[in-house]
Design goal:
Layout (H helix, E strand, L loop, with lengths): L1 H8 L34 H5 L12 H10 L2 E7 L4 H11 L2 H10 E7 L4 H15 L6 E5 L5 E5 L4 H17 L1 H18 L13 H11 L19 H13 L3 H16 L13 E2 L7 E2 L2 E2 H18 L2 H17 L10 E2 L2 E3 L5 E3 L7 H7 L4 H7 L21 H8 L3 H19 L7 E2 L2 E2 H18 L2 H18 L7 E5 L2 E5 L2 H18 L2 H17 L1 E2 L4 E2 L24 H16 L2 H18 L7 H11 L3 E6 L3 H9 L6 E6 L18 E6 L2 E2 L6 H9 L1
Parallel strand pairs: 1-2, 17-18
Antiparallel strand pairs: 1-3, 3-4, 5-6, 7-8, 8-11, 9-10, 12-13, 13-14, 15-16, 17-19, 19-20
């Protein structure tokens, strides 16, 4: 009814498309422009628009009050720095003087960095999806002066956007009641969409029910190319992580093969930077070949954790290489001096001709390759698919592997050692050649949630590879969050830029930081990190938890200026804040013998039970928690002077169904009480409140876990 109502309201809904952009000349030189209000912001994305002729405002109370005072509709335009089509629309429309005049005369225009304000993005993305059935960025929404949406879409061409502005402005002036009535219906629909169905019935979390859910999921898997069927293709680390864990704990060899194949295909693909390491956000094709070239911190953080788990399980040396190369990329290109991590690297970069082009830094002509690779060119072309069939646009190529090393070695009569030498040489030469290119810009804001994911990635890499540098970087990152982003009352900031911590944190910041600090405790056995995680959880319970639904709001009770409070439950590219918080409660419940936390965690999972049975792939991290209930889940307490040594040994095994606690001295932690012996180091394996006989060697403990 909502979509029908919109059609009756206005007949010009435009579908987002990737049409070839037509470059429009900017009427006035940028240097002659007068800066708008965005000049006072720190977000690189907002600053990019600071000299647009559009009189952009930032999202704040003053901007919304101005709209009410002048009784003007509001344009809320949302994007992010690495977004290619955001830049296209800026060039075509927001830098155009005639369009700017339309917007300035008839609207209050607000620019939003979706990474800074995911709360705002969630609300208006929901609105646009309800209206059009589609979503994406740039996200452009027209609202009433009070922020209630009345029209929206994603990318608009210059002519489409002009028509939208004229017709919406005219309609609001001639028939405001009609617009207001639609806004009422749409806002009601948005609130209803977000309602959580509370499950008051007991749920039996068992292997039979879980098997049925996974069997429902399986037909959508791409068993040839990896990942999910269809295009575009996103890595989706939480999905592959769950499927890997499920395959091991439920002896599903075919599913395990799918995950391993997916990881190999991604690492071989154009989505992975074969020269400098690191993954792009997604590919537009089914074969991981043609990427959308922006590199996001959150993707690379989660993929490091995923490849670490796969390496731990399989011992595949290729996975180790991918971990190391990706972390080298993060360290060189996304790490700032304080140990925190930048957000992303742009998809666009400057070409030799001076224009911006998506992927310009990463693509190659044959002539460039011939210049850079001065020997063994035939081998190189075969290894990276430099042929007519794999040619991209403008006679360029994206490095992309389709042959396994085994096949390649047999074809050319090489040894693995010889190939390794060749690949290292090729990468070195291409990297040297690429250093002369204009690098894509970096979004240098620091986001707490994404930094926590990267901290976790470093910890997972350290656990399986033992590289002390990874642990040092993880601790430095954790100290940054603790000293810069965490307040004494347990609250977190979301953003850090230019030495300033800003924007009150969202549930995603709390969820991922708690998760990372628990992981840091498990690796270091330093209880301060577990205590800090507990303190942050307590703040979350006070300011985010909804007792009625049993779930957590995305925004705290301190946030204002939003037309509704969202509850994030669907696991997307990043796991939902609620699924992570439920897992955190599960773990903290065990550590502190906190029955209330355990009860809430199970209640949250119960609320999602029906949904995960219909669309399993959208609830992958919830399903990971489900495994804690359907299969044995072990507490492992290590107490004694050699606790660190024993815990390191334990971390070398793929054991996703355990919770590790440890202390080298007597500890008051509930799980560790009365277990210290100054003469020996004991390992206690417990399940469902029952503990097996303590052992002194790790192998015996693992045997107890695997029985």
């Amino acid at each position: 009814m909502i979509r029908k109502g919109l059609f009756l309201l206005v007949s010009f809904i435009f579908i987002c498309s990737c049409t070839k952009k037509e470059k429009e000349p900017v009427a006035t030189d940028v240097q002659e422009r007068i800066a708008n209000d965005l000049i006072h912001e720190t977000s690189p994305y907002l600053l990019e628009h600071a000299y647009n002729p559009v009189n952009w405002k930032a999202w704040n109370s003053e901007s919304l009050e101005l709209a009410k005072e002048e009784n003007k509709l509001v344009v809320i335009s949302i994007g992010y720095s690495a977004c290619h089509w955001c830049h296209v629309m800026e060039e075509e429309s927001f830098e155009n003087d005639s369009i700017a005049a339309l917007m300035n005369d008839n609207f209050i225009s607000i620019k939003v960095d979706r990474e800074e304000r995911p709360d705002v993005d969630q609300i208006y993305m929901d609105a646009v999806q309800l209206m059009t059935g589609k979503g994406g960025w740039p996200l452009n929404c027209i609202t009433l002066p009070d922020g209630r949406p009345v029209f929206g879409g994603t990318y608009f061409t210059k002519s489409q956007w002009t028509k939208v502005l004229v017709e919406m402005s005219d309609l609001y002036k001639k028939d405001p009641e009609k617009v207001i009535a639609y806004a009422d219906r749409l806002t009601k629909g948005m609130k209803n969409k977000d309602l959580i169905t509370v499950n008051k019935e007991a749920v039996a979390f068992n292997t039979e029910s879980l098997d049925a859910i996974v069997n429902l999921w399986k037909p959508s898997l791409d068993l040839v190319n990896g990942g999910q069927q269809g295009a575009p293709k996103f890595p989706m680390p939480n999905q592959l992580n769950f499927l890997l864990r499920y395959s091991v704990q439920n002896n599903d060899n075919e599913l395990q093969k799918h995950v391993v194949n997916s990881l190999i295909k991604m690492a071989n693909g154009g989505i992975y930077d074969q020269v400098g390491g690191g993954f792009s956000r997604y590919t537009v094709d089914e074969e991981w070949h043609i990427p959308h070239f922006e590199k996001m911190l959150y993707d690379n953080a989660q993929l490091v954790s995923l490849y670490a788990a796969a390496y731990q399980l399989t011992g595949n040396e290729y996975f180790k290489i991918i971990i190391e190369e990706t972390l080298d990329f993060v360290h060189v290109e996304l790490t700032q001096k304080e140990g925190a991590f930048y957000s992303s690297i742009n998809a666009d970069s400057t070409t030799n001709s001076g224009g911006l082009k998506e992927g310009a830094f990463y693509i190659w002509t044959k002539k460039q390759l011939e210049t850079a690779i001065d020997s063994e060119l035939e081998l190189f072309y075969s290894y990276y698919n430099i042929n007519e069939a794999r040619k991209w646009e403008d006679d360029t190529y994206i490095l992309y592997k389709t042959k396994s090393d085994v096949v390649f070695l047999k074809e050319f009569g090489l040894t693995q050692q010889e190939l390794n030498v060749l690949v290292r040489d090729w990468k070195s030469k291409l990297d040297a050649y690429r250093k002369d290119r204009e690098r894509p810009s970096t979004d240098d804001k620091v986001l707490t949630s994404w930094n926590a994911l990267m901290l976790k990635g470093y910890l997972d890499a350290y656990r399986v590879l033992g590289n002390k540098e990874y642990l040092d970087r993880a601790i430095k990152s954790a100290e940054f969050i603790k000293t810069k982003q965490l307040n004494k009352d347990g609250s977190l900031f979301h953003n850090y830029k230019d030495g300033r911590s800003t924007i009150e944190g969202f549930s995603e910041d709390y969820a991922h930081t708690i998760d990372a600090f628990i992981a840091l405790y498990q690796v270091t056995l330093d209880e301060k990190w577990l205590t800090t995680a507990s303190d942050i959880m307590k703040y979350s319970m006070i300011h985010f938890y909804d007792k009625n639904s049993g779930m957590f709001y995305f925004t705290s009770d301190q946030h204002t200026n939003l037309i509704t409070r969202k509850t994030e439950v669907v696991d997307n590219v990043i796991s939902s804040s609620n699924s992570v918080l439920a897992t955190n409660l599960f773990q903290l419940g065990h550590y502190y013998s906190n029955k209330e936390y355990s009860k809430i965690s199970e209640r949250m999972l119960s609320n999602i039970h029906k949904d995960m049975k219909t669309t399993p792939s959208a609830y992958a991290n919830w399903l990971n928690l489900y495994l804690n209930y359907s299969n044995p889940y072990y507490e492992v307490a290590i107490s004694g002077s050699k606790a660190m040594e024993k815990s390191k040994e334990l971390h070398s095994y793929y054991l996703p169904n355990i919770l590790i606690a440890g202390a080298t001295v007597d500890s008051d932690l509930s799980i560790m009480k009365n277990r210290f012996n100054k003469d020996n180091t004991y390992i206690y394996v417990c399940v469902d409140g029952s503990c097996k006989l303590p052992v002194t060697d790790t192998k015996s403990a693992v045997d107890q876990l695997l029985k």
